[in-house]
Design goal:
Distance between the termini: 30 Å
Structural class: alpha+beta
Number of helices: 29
Helix content: 40-55%
Oligomer: single chain
Strand order of the largest sheet: 2-3-1-8-7-9
Radius of gyration: 26 Å
Strand content: 5-15%
């Protein structure tokens, strides 16, 4: 894990190596290791390695100077395509391998790579800077493109350290933040700084002309051959083991983040399985880091964590995260992220990394976001509804309910009703009638009531919404409670939110459609970026096996019938890792939420801090926030702890704290407060 920065000037001036050093100076202490700078005329590249990392020297002699933060997982495959023998491949760094790939394939090179990467490469012959970011955005890449220069860095502070980059705030991004929405993958809270979108490359030429290109799409994955569920489960097991192997260190100890959930347990148990005699490597010590909640037992998962620990081979570390509240270290967290963030639970992850850093752990495996990568499979019900297979629909729905997922009524509303509504809106009343007759055995409602409930009433709602939108009175035109009137009007947020709402609320027609929507959602990239930020804060290399492109493509292309089996979500994990997962976790239905602990901590431990923020932030928030609405939401929250109000208060509070810090302040030294740490 490196930090990278670079500049390409179009105005005839030479790139300034001192500027690159400044751009890479605003890093957390754990990332402030050896610094290397390369400069030739208008182009300069910089690489800074973590303080305790032993990595190959940057700027390999390939003819293409490259600044890379990269780990390539399919090195053997890439080497074979490039005709490299084993000895030469072994001697090449990941950066050198990327450069060799570019020499062979040009701008198509990223399509051949599997792994986590962000890089910029100088092509002197073409006088262009070629940049790319990995498929899911696990390694960040921020940039500014102006009339006279292009500048990039691994974090916001690096780009903002360039004195020619303005620090103007992006009010559209602020508006979406106050609406509790992550609406795109490219904006930041600064107008003049952007993110390179995941799965995209960017070429910048000597005239400052930028060419963006998407090099990978989910829907380009080849369809799977017909196979049984058990055969697909065996393939999943193979691909997951492959994803794990290429992320394990060659030797030495490492750590895993372990909750009692299916995904983190899959990572921990598969790591241990691969380390056992008969696995792929000798046994090393594996340390787990788990959040525990003594004061909020409904959030505690030690009973499930214990099932993994009983199998042996893991040194556990339990972190009593309730010793602090979400705002206890908010200054450090905002310094690292560079922007407000929408996750009140981030402080839990922060404390887990503090514990890992204190133990000297340099590499962590994390199970996020297995829910999205594998996908729960609920939308298979939409396929059953549209095929008229209502018996199977309700059989799966009742089993889902029994396993702790949703309710039958909720599943009917989400996946059954939209099909009936589509028929009604298309005036296909005969098909609608056939569908309702097929529904009759599974409901006590009369056909007249179903006509009202599944036909006329939702049809009227849809037409009212369409008419309202036409006259500027639709639901999406109503100003969200926290957004101030000026911000709402001057940024055209109504139109922007209408597009966002249409993209995120349209009921899916199939499991694959909903799976794609989740994988393509900006929220997923946001989650991975938060993980990257906390990794950099503590100099820990974090790796995400569930984000392996090969594994995700396989899970995406699975037929709907194999995404949901007998009411079991994620059946490929449950079946594919049988014998590796503890049975109590493998057959676990629902999952534990830690929102109750967050609410308790905010209202008790952080009450004074939150009160102070609310009392002294009016001036900072006034240009953006409806202050009376915020006051009322905060009053309700103090009284009842309503979680909807909690999110509104959190969004406003983090925005206020960020603004009061000067928005673009650089990271400071981070304390290692380990009072909440206990080991077993």
């Amino acid at each position: 894990m490196n930090s990278i920065a670079g500049i390409y000037r179009f105005d005839g001036r030479a790139a300034d190596p001192a500027l690159l050093e400044r751009m890479l100076a605003s890093l957390p202490p754990a990332m402030a290791g050896p610094l290397s700078v390369w400069q030739a005329g208008p182009v300069g590249l910089g690489v800074r390695r973590p303080a305790r990392a032993a990595a190959p020297a940057p700027f390999p002699g390939t003819g293409y100077p490259i600044a890379a933060d990269a780990r390539i997982d399919n090195r053997d495959e890439v080497g074979a395509r490039l005709g490299l023998d084993a000895a030469r491949l072994a001697a090449m760094s990941d950066a050198a391998l990327i450069a060799a790939g570019y020499a062979a394939w040009g701008h198509d090179a990223p399509a051949h790579l599997v792994g986590d990467y962000a890089f910029a490469l100088w092509d002197a012959a073409q006088r262009r800077l070629f940049c790319a970011r990995d498929h899911f955005g696990l390694r960040p890449f921020y940039y500014h493109l102006g009339a006279q220069f292009f500048v990039f860095a691994s974090d916001l502070h690096g780009v903002l350290a360039c004195p020619e980059v303005a620090h103007r705030l992006d009010e559209v991004r602020i508006g979406f933040h106050l609406a509790v929405a992550v609406a795109d993958k490219t904006s930041t809270f600064y107008q003049d700084v952007k993110r390179l979108a995941p799965a995209h490359s960017l070429q910048v030429d000597a005239q400052g002309v930028a060419a963006y290109r998407r090099y990978w799409r989910l829907d380009a994955a080849p369809p799977l051959p017909l196979a049984t569920a058990s055969a697909h489960a065996a393939t999943f097991r193979h691909l997951f083991a492959q994803a794990m192997r290429c992320r394990l260190p060659p030797s030495g100890p490492f750590g895993v983040l372990l909750s009692g959930g299916l995904d983190s347990t899959a990572v921990a148990c598969t790591a241990r399985y691969l380390m056992q005699p008969g696995g792929t490597r000798q046994r090393d010590r594996l340390r787990s880091y788990s959040a525990v909640f003594d004061q909020t037992p409904e959030c505690d998962e030690r009973a499930y964590i214990a099932e993994t620990l009983l199998q042996g081979g893991v040194d556990p570390c339990f972190v009593a995260v309730e010793a602090q509240g979400p705002l206890a270290q908010i200054g450090d967290m905002l310094s690292v992220t560079g922007e407000p963030f929408s996750s009140p639970t981030f402080y839990i992850l922060w404390q887990l990394y503090q514990a890992a850093h204190a133990h000297g752990t340099a590499l962590l495996l994390d199970g996020i976001d297995g829910d999205t990568a594998v996908y729960h499979g609920d939308a298979y019900l939409a396929e059953l509804a549209r095929a008229g297979r209502w018996g199977e629909f309700f059989d799966q729905a009742h089993k889902l309910q029994a396993h702790g997922h949703h309710t039958v009524d909720g599943l009917m509303k989400r996946y059954g009703e939209p099909y009936l509504l589509d028929l009604a809106c298309a005036w296909r009343w005969r098909a609608w009638g056939r569908a309702v007759r097929a529904l009759t055995p599974y409901t006590d409602a009369t056909r007249r009531r179903m006509l009202a409930y599944y036909g006329l009433r939702p049809l009227a709602r849809r037409y009212r919404t369409q008419v309202g939108r036409a006259f500027g009175q639709g639901a999406v035109s109503r100003r969200p409670s926290l957004i101030g009137a000026r911000l709402w009007q001057e940024t055209a947020l109504a139109e922007r939110m209408a597009v966002y709402t249409a993209q995120t609320t349209m009921p899916p027609a199939s499991a694959q459609e909903e799976h794609a929507r989740l994988l393509e959602a900006p929220l997923l990239a946001h989650v991975f970026e938060l993980s990257s930020h906390v990794s950099r804060a503590f100099g820990i290399d974090t790796r995400h096996p569930f984000a392996d492109r090969r594994l995700v493509e396989f899970c995406y292309t699975l037929p709907g019938a194999h995404k949901l089996i007998d009411g079991w979500t994620r059946p490929m994990v449950r079946q594919g890792l049988a014998g590796i997962l503890p049975e109590a976790v493998r057959l676990r239905g629902g999952k534990t939420e830690n929102s109750a602990a967050v609410t308790k901590a905010l209202r008790r431990q952080d009450a004074a801090c939150l009160e102070q923020v609310m009392a002294h932030s009016r001036q900072a928030l006034a240009p953006y926030v409806d202050l009376p609405a915020l006051t009322e939401a905060y009053r309700r929250y103090r009284h009842s702890g309503n979680r909807q109000d909690e999110m509104l208060v959190w969004q406003a509070a983090t925005l206020a704290l960020w603004l009061q810090r000067g928005a673009s302040s650089t990271p400071s030294s981070r304390p290692n407060n380990l009072e909440s740490l206990s080991t077993a």
